[in-house]
Amino acid sequence: MKVTTDLSVTSLRPRQSGIWTPSLLFDGGEQGAWFDPSDLSTLFQDAAGTIPVTADGDQVGLILDKSGNGNHAIQSIPATRPSWRTNGNVAWFEFDGVDDRVSINPIGYASGSFGLCIGLSYLAYTPSTKYGSWRSLHIDGPYIGASHPTSVGDIHSVAAVAELDGEPASGSRHLLYAQLLKKRIATATGIPAAAFADNTWQFSGYSSPGSPPARVYGYVESEALIAANVAMVRLWMAKHTKGA
Asked: Is it the case that residue 170 has pLDDT exceeding 90?
């Protein structure tokens, strides 16, 4: 599905003077995406972008991409939309672990690799195939993150470097799953762009199996997100995930 509506917010690359924000990862026109649940101006209850998200518990049918690249996240089916939640300090997208998900059109990277950062926590341990993934094409495709959606055994990520709170991510899916029951900042760099080219991808889940019930406090991916600046994006994401 392709969104053709001209949403003016996509042309903006917001920045606060003297403060690092993920907008700096896109200042040179770099490709990528940025989804920010703390910014209500980018969130809508419907996929057409006509009904804004305003209150805790509202459904989210459209998340505008703050990178300026127009890579919006969309869910046209009301029953499978995540919820927008807040505790007054931080905000997040909440996925039910059954069928909630949003989809993003293929991102065409000109460079050979990209990096990502996500603020995440799982809400429950479901000892089955529901391990989830942070970035995956489909059930049997390349992936980056907690584990391949259906495979058993240890994790084999396509990223060059994957970390959780600045430490190497575990190769054990059970250990990593247990770690993600608390708020964590996950980062990955050196992800081969070619492995994810020309495919629509689903954020947070798949039809079979679904991802675990989870909260996502923010998500950024960019071809400019490399090892040299991953610490800055991790600090920004930690503030928006764990609070000031």
From this structure: no
